[in-house]
Amino acid sequence: MMNNSVTEFILAGLTQDSGKQKAVFGVFLILYLVTLLGNFLIVVTIKTSRTLGSPMYLFLFYLSFADACFSTTTAPRLIMDALSQKKTISFKECMTQVFAVHFFGCTEVFVLILMAFDRYVAICKPLRYTTIMSRQICVVLVILAWVGACIHSSAQIFLILRLPFCGPNVIDHYFCDLQPLLKLACMDTYVINVLVVSNSGALCMMSFVILLMSYAVILYSLRNHSAEGRQKALSTCTSHFIVVVIFFGPCIFIYTRPPTTFSIDKMVALFYTIGTPLLNPLIYTLRNAEVKNAMKKLWCSKV
């Protein structure tokens, strides 16, 4: 770890206008609470339902859990800072936030890949589905996703901790992230940025390509299915594909480019840090009859 004269950073936030900051507080407080509620409902429904025991719902359980955690890494700080005069964050808290954002974001990436793999096996190899996607194998795959996310995040932190920060200390963002921090380092960060792009950028691009290829294979194999089976498979895959595009589009824009920042970065980051965790529960419940029925049964039993 490099010696730093900077012990804390100041987050610029989304806006400096006091009137707009009050709007930011109200809007994002509501969005964050809805995000937590939506993902909590999915987690509880899948955990308590006897009908949602397939691997797809196991992965959806962990996706919703990761979504809630991912949103919590950035949203509370954004909401609190909207009403704070001095938006400071200590060096250690900043490094913790960088790790948490990339850990839960990467977990979401790997779980989305597992969900695509599950749909591929279910549609393309239905006779071997129960053997390939057994409960034990699914649990191992989920554990590997968490371990992979931890390795990815640890690599990012290792790169950032090697940077010296000697001022200025104003991060032009609403949370601590790699590109804004690289901009503040008082050394040439070209090599570090190449390593960051080869880590986060390559992860985003490769995962996106893998997902696109898997859905292309799935769509091609659907031509042999009955109309009813094709419709059901298309409905499920469409939900997954919408989530993939919403999540990976902004991530690729942020993490696969040269060492520079744009004013639009903060708005783009909102899509994957706030938007995706908010929309995932809506997409998966509104387009999935089994989840909706299980939620109705859970609600009726509690009432």
UniProtKB/TrEMBL annotation:
Transmembrane intervals: 23-44, 56-79, 99-117, 137-161, 200-222, 234-255, 267-286
Similarity comment: family membership: Belongs to the G-protein coupled receptor 1 family.
Principal location: membrane
GO molecular function terms listed in the Swiss-Prot or TrEMBL record: G protein-coupled receptor activity; olfactory receptor activity
Lineage: superkingdom: Eukaryota
Location in the cell: Cell membrane
Record organism: Equus asinus
Membrane topology of this protein: Multi-pass membrane protein
Cited Gene3D superfamilies: Rhodopsin 7-helix transmembrane proteins
GO annotations of cellular component type: plasma membrane
The protein's name in its UniProt record: Olfactory receptor
Stated role: Putative odorant or sperm cell receptor.
Ranges where the G-protein coupled receptors family 1 profile domain occurs: 38-284
InterPro entries reported in the protein's UniProt record: GPCR_Rhodpsn (IPR000276), GPCR_Rhodpsn_7TM (IPR017452), Olfact_rcpt (IPR000725), Olfactory_Receptors (IPR050427)
Keyword field: Cell membrane, G-protein coupled receptor, Membrane, Olfaction, Receptor, Sensory transduction, Transducer, Transmembrane, Transmembrane helix
